[in-house]
Amino acid sequence: MPELPEVETLRRGLAERLVGRTIAAVEVRLPKLFVQGDPTTLVGKQVAAIRRVAKFLVWEFADDWSLVLHLNLTGQIILQLPDGTRFAGGHPIPAFTVPLPHKTTRLLLTLDDGSWLALDDVRTFARAWLLPRPAAEAFLAAQRRGPDALLDPLDPATLSQQLRRHKRAPIKAVLLDQAFLAGVGNIYADEALFGAGIHPARPAGDLSETEVVRLLAEVRAVVQLAVQEGVARVRNGRAVPGAQLPRVHARRGEPCPRCRQPIVKTVVAQRGTYFCPVCQPLEAASPNSTTAIR
DNA sequence: AACTACTCCTGGAGGC
DNA sequence: TGCCTCCAGGAGTAGT
């Protein structure tokens, strides 16, 4: 499922290949993909820039319109270049090498150089908004959204204060809340909690200041690593063998990379959740480790 | 206000 | 081989 690193990786690859290109043809295969705007008016628009805002991919056109795209759970983009090579990203199903259009292809764009782009989405949750630039910016600004997990300063004092409002909610649920931190999803929440040695079901309000600092550092580190080294690879709920990330997510029963105890799967905040029961104890950290947040 | 549960949705995996 | 059931979860919303 595309989270911040997947969207950022897509953004970089698409920007490199699409800026300056003009859309020559559009085929919409799932009309409800477009919440706002008439996709047929994409024809003739020239790509000026591709930005990322949290998990939104924002295409800016030379005529001051914007295409805002959210891949949600299972969106993926495959760009096929004139020489037949592909650049792809997002959810890994169907395989990026699948013949296109696939039955899950929801949008097809043809570019003026003969390359074409498919938006595939198995579960049809992806959404698009085609809007004049000011309306698009207003739409993005209106999203309840915390600091960007990759780009914005993650101030422990500010975020600790917010955690106080979530006294009893499991820390993982708060990490998944985009209003707290933008860009973290199920995989990287598990990874950051593992890195920080914090049990995903710990009440958010019980975390010590030290733990909050450590957790924020891990969020940033995990997201940065995923962007730099290639995204966490999970297929059909299983981690792809040999991948550096994820270390615990989708690795039930596999040895913890730190202590070799088997990784456990449970459900927290209605999400499949993986953690090491030894490295991430449910009890608050040792007594000598600072005061709990009230 | 904080928190939980439900709702969209369908391909793929696993059981028999 | 072919049914059938279950599972995956981002984010909005309704209910407690």
Explain this structure.
The chain has 6 helices and 14 strands. The chain has a 5-stranded antiparallel beta sheet with strand order 1-8-9-6-7, with helices on one face. It has a 5-stranded mixed beta sheet with strand order 2-10-5-4-3. A two-stranded antiparallel ribbon has the order 11-12. A hairpin with a 3-residue loop joins strand 4 and strand 5. It starts with a helix and ends in a 19-residue tail after the last strand. The chain binds a DNA duplex (16 and 16 nucleotides) through loops.
What is the overall number of helices? 6
Look at the structure and give the mean pLDDT.
Answer: 89
Overall number of domains: 2
Structural class: alpha+beta
Q: Strand content of the residues, in percent?
A: 15-25%
Shape: globular
Q: What summary fits the major beta sheet? A: 5 strands, antiparallel
Q: How far is the first residue's CA from the last residue's CA?
A: 34 Å
Count of extended strands: 14
Strand order, largest beta sheet? 1-8-9-6-7
Give the fraction of residues assigned to helices.
10-25%
Unreliable stretches, pLDDT < 50, 5 or more residues? 286-294
CATH class of the largest domain: Alpha Beta
**Rg calc:** 20 Å
Order of helical and strand elements:
HEEEEEEEEEEHHHHHEEEE
Q: Care to give the gist of this entry?
A:
With 294 residues, the chain is of the alpha+beta class. Helix content is 25%, strand content 24%. The chain has two domains: 4-142, MutM-like, N-terminal (N-terminal domain of MutM-like DNA repair proteins); 156-275, Helicase, Ruva Protein, domain 3.
